[in-house]
Amino acid sequence: MKYSVANNVIHFSLDRADGPQNCFVCIEGLKKFKNLILSTCEVVRDKSQGRSNFTCMANIYSFVKVFVAFLKYENIQLPSTEHQWQNFVLSFFNYYLTNSTFRSSTRSRMVSWQHPTRSILMELQNRNIIPIELLIPKIRLSSESYRAGSTPILKTISKRQNLNEVSDKILVSPNFSQRDEDFMKTIELDCRQKVRVVQEVCLKHWQALVNDQSFSKNDADKISNEEIDRIFLVGRKNKITRANFYKLTGATCENEHKWLFATIKRIIYLSDSPTCISSLQLKSLPYFSRRVFQTGGYGRILSKQTDMEKHAFQQLSTFQAVYHFSGILSPRDVAAICALLIIEHPKFNPMSLKFAKITNKSGKWNLHVTDGDSQQVFSVDKPRAQSRKAAVLSPLACKLIGDVITITAPVRELLKRARNQDADYLFIGMSSGRLKRITTSLISAFTQPNKTSLCKLYPELTAAGLGKNEFSFAKLRNSLGVVRWFDTGSIDEMSRCLGNSKRTTIEHYLPPVLLGMWNTRIIRRFQNTLIVLASDRKSSLTLSDFQSEEELADFVAQLLFEYKDGSSPIASRLHAALSSEKSVKTTTNGLINLKICDESLSYLYAFKDYVTQKISSESSDFAPDDLATGLIELGRLIQYACENRKDFFALSEVLDLNSLCKIHEKAKVKKVHLSKEFEKFEITKSF
Amino acid sequence: MTSRKSIASLREDDLIILALDDARGQINARMYGYQAKWLLSDYHSDVWITAYRGREKCLDGKWSNSININWNICLPNGKSLADPIYKNFLSSLKRSAFCVRSGLIGQSYSAKKWEFYVRSILKLVEWVTFHSNIFIPEKYGLQLIGQKELDDLFSQLAIGSWFYAMDVPGRILREVKKDQGGEKLAFLDKANLILSNHSAQRVIRWLEDNRYYKVVQAGPHRGRSIVDKEKLSSLLFLSNSCQGRRFAAFLRQFESDFHFTELLIPMGPDTEYPSQNTLTVMETLQSRCSIKSLEIFHDHLNTHKEVKRLLSPLHARLNSINAIPNKSYSRSKGIAKPTTRTKFIPFDIGVAYLNVAMEWVEFYGDGIISYYAEWLKNVDIIEYSLAGGTRRSTIVKMAQQRIVHKEFAFQGGRYPNLGSLVDMSILFRRGTNRRHKEIREKLSLGDAISVLIGACVITIGLLKPSRSDELTHLDHDCLIQKEDGFYIRFTLGKSNVQDAYQTVEKPIPRITAKSLQLLQKLGRVVNMNCLVKYRQAENQKLFILPTDSIGRCMTLSDGVLNQYIDRFCDFANFPAQPNGSRWYLRIHEMRKWFLLLLFWAGRYDVLEAARWIAGHTDVKHIHTYIQREFPGEELPTIEAEYAMERLIDYEENHILGGSAEPGIVGLYKNVLTYFNAAALSLIPKVEWESYISELRMCGRLVLEPHSINALKHNGEMSGVSVSFILRAEEDA
Q: Are B514 and A167 within 8 A, CB to CB?
């Protein structure tokens, strides 16, 4: 790193493969601090020796810039006594944590105070530039080792109810009661499905934009520049009326949009004012009747030409429709592209994309992604990351960015002519009546229901649970992380790693989001285990988190499977609870109480005969399942018992053979008829 | 959503303020003399009132919830530390205390930790003045404490804590001899501090003559006479640290009214039976000081030695201890006993309490609180507060008659109607002589509320491991509902930076959410019916509880929380244990119960979840905790089983390439070499499994979990891994 001072500006320059990176710090009006600042620069330079460009920039941004800003702040005097110096350091510390000039969170400020700021100040002490006796305040931060809670993903949100009604049976979807594999699969499917919907919709939207733009370009090209210039010239000399204009151009209602596109294109080409095609300007132009810009108008004509879905296009206002065709980006379009780019490259954050800059050098597209995220203090070009990111751009992302650059080229030229810095940004378009970089919120352009947001244009987004408060770019990125994890690590592997069922290994390397969900699930399951164990059978459904008997029963069954008897007090207790049920059954000597009437018995017999016959005839292909086999056995048993009463003498009382035989006789009669009906059944394998 | 955000940012503001205050404090001490934001009173005053996590409050010029240090302690020689002869000594002590709290020694001390430090040093000062003929503290401060003296102090502390170190029994006996003359009183058993019968009679006579007995006024032991400890202590100039349970146990041999039981029954809490933690008199007298408290004491001495470099030469001289505390500590460690652990609640007791608590919360909670609210609504608080005793009860009675009898019955015929459980006509039962049995048979509404609060605390504590501090100071809006269920938000009791603590959210089941909600509702009712003077700030604390007097309310301290649990446990009325004690749940016991059962049931698969719910930062901590606290002998078996499962898994899945933890590879090879086999599957399963068990039992195989926090690819990855460490044979 080098630095030089000239004209009250410190110029830091960093050598990089593709030319120096510059950073300027203005020190105007800081004459009295000149020595201090110069020695500070020296320390920063020495500290940056041999460090990566990133570190160097961090030193400049998190120390030099803040320090200079502090010196400029409210007439600070150069301290002389130790006492004053101490106050000076303290107020710098104060400024560092609380100033509103630099956007960054308290935590990151605290981190960057510890390093590099504090270490640079201590170096200044070592060099006797500030008194060595000074105490430089120290901050220590400790935190829980992960914060899964702060990384939400796109998942289905069940409808919330008012908190005041906890007593009502619950709001909570206790998806923790699912089995391990199901739980993970639900998350995976949910994530994948949502990402897919976002991708499809955004791609559709973007494709329509590209197609419509090329359509309008073709249309506009049909009219030569000379022709338009001629009209402009006429218009400048004498007021033209709409009728005159039609005479001059020969435009009819059907082909007027050609003239519209050509005019807009030409205006952008010639003008150097960012407001040249604002709605006000367009309305005031003499070439088109005002009527057509009101409701309907061009919208109706253009809706025949558009590639967008009709219902979506019809929601655009006339101007929005015109801009859409003319290739002037709206925040909505940018939101769609950003979503697509994030899906391709989850490492891009939406803020850095929104404020991405392009520099067009030697035919290469360079993407300067900046950390404009409100979470971080400075916007730093990441020089190292930049080259890598450009290298790994996926084909789709490359195409997208290429398209954006092509489409925005005319506007970019205009901004360059206007010497507007926004020309460097990737996303420029129409925002609050001006041609400039898109600064409005992308998330509201995506989800806001009362604007012409993507969600409003494409109701399938809201239907898929991606509406307001449900979708955010951060969630999208986290979900992609989860999906990617599911892609790379196989589900079997994962369920084996995590599964309670196999109890093998806990070496799981999970994205924090998933681990957080997993931990929550374990804790919730255990809490409910305790509740189920503590409460008696009748109240356990009311007291636990479950909504139905089935869920509860399923949960208990899972627990019995998971916990081996005797392995822990909980397991023993669980099994004890179950075996008490068993003992209730065994007191009835393992017999089932069946309520039998002649009707039911006849069906049973008919079924038994039918199936046994089927098995014998189509032996190889047909195999009855457990339930069927059980029923057949039961039928056989009853039939045998009734027909061989002597053998069953011992059981005659238990079975109540007398009445059973009566029913048996009746059933046999009915069976004959039923069997005929059964014959009509067919088993098709296609089921 | 918005409220969540604003709170999150508020915490951030707190953090900034703390950081700035702290920095200012560090610098102020040096620049402007001894002032700090945490010091609420004057530096030179005898009692320091200091801030405590922003919970301190000033009402009518009096501070509450603050941490106070009284410098004007009474010394064993009858003088006080504020006396002019100790002027220099005291000011040196104050300075060192100030420097430590301000974080000038580099270590950051939380308010509580600092308080313990100051108290330790004050105890040392007492000890020095007790031996003032040797140490001459008014002149030399702590300077004359040499290695030998410190060693002695530590070993006496190890035997019987400060009670022993300050020779309290000896001093009592000397007083007796001084008054009565005659021969020296002798211990029958020196180690247990038991007097011979004859000597004991002499002491009893002395106590009677000087009227050192008093009669218990309330509680289950009403009417019995005990030694008036306060009076006796003031005679001997005993400080609080000498008046602990050992003091009570020593005096018990002179209290014939209590010789019916061996347990050292405490007079304080109003429970039906002594608690599970009650020791017998002999156990108390024989019990040694715990290693942990010695360790803390020696830590404090080290801090005190360190702080002297920040003081002026005079003060540094008075504060210098010419001995190495570490040496004394390690020499005395052998005498002390291992630190006592929180007891493990027997599974069935925990589950039984949980059941009753849940039923109360679910079926009675709403009814009790709505009835209470309805009642209070009809009381004119101002009239009530101005009225006298009889008038007051009339007002309450009248109010009850005005209650519109709505449906206060409950779902499910299975549960007794609230009316049959609670006597709805009595708000608070007066009179101190209350038998637990009577209370149980017909609860007054006030009693029912107490039981309900206890039930709520138990459903929270048993289902979400908490520290008592975390529960006591819950915020009013600590209950959060997210898409997948309820969460509780609280400030972590540990992992702090000085006094900046983290706020976290952890999952809770619905029944716990319901308890929180009941407490919120109760708090609102109580607060609304409070005189303006006593009203708590809106939505500040979860626990705003009723007092016996309408129009007032109270917030919680740790002890009070336990009283509610005690009431609940007495109400639940599970049979007493054979030694005549009952299990009264404690917050930390419940925490342990949950965590150990969780691990016990889920083994190593839930280790990470256990860490997370316990609020530890590293999985190692929770594993150490489990190893230390695990009840019974099963832990090595569990660990050996886990090792076996991992070995099988390794052979099946990882042996052909793939990364594996090096420890498991080592273990695998070790097993193969031992049996001289090529694969595990070739060795009979029983044989190698018993070999592993043996390795684990004799301590040659150690399991050590780690937390993994690595930045891989483009995202943070996190997880847990368990290392297997094989020790060489000679190490074991």
A: yes
